[in-house]
Amino acid sequence: MRKPGNKILRIRGWALAMIFIGMAVMYLGVFFREIPWVMLIFLILGIIPILLSFVIYFWVGMISARTVTVQCPNCERHTKILGRVDYCQHCKEPLTLDQELEGEEFTVDYNVKHRREKKIAELREQRNSKD
Ligand SMILES: [Zn+2]
């Protein structure tokens, strides 16, 4: 199974894929150039994912400003983290900004605030009961 990658790279990948999908759909329209309205539908259907990918690129640019750059403990290169947990851009090492979650089983669930807080509460309880 392929490991999930860094979020920003993944979102960019999707945006790029959408440009190709849009172009492929528009290209299909060429086969219907005898029937103008069919060709028009293909062109419109093709433009939608392309416009959407521009919106995504723009959005990625905005959220990139909110990312935290950290040094990856695994490969020692600098990587951008989006949210509380993310993967290293270079080696795909899971990284977290919460020290309490360090060493725990990794899940992107921790990006959801209430799930993360529930997990931290559980960990605290476990630690307290050990003492
Ligand atoms: Zn790394």
Automatic annotation (TrEMBL):
It comes from the Bacteria. Keywords: Cell membrane, Membrane, Transmembrane, Transmembrane helix. InterPro entries: UPF0295 (IPR020912). The chain crosses the membrane at residues 12-32, 38-60. This is Uncharacterized protein. It comes from Jeotgalicoccus saudimassiliensis. The lineage of its organism: Bacteria, Bacillati, Bacillota, Bacilli, Bacillales.
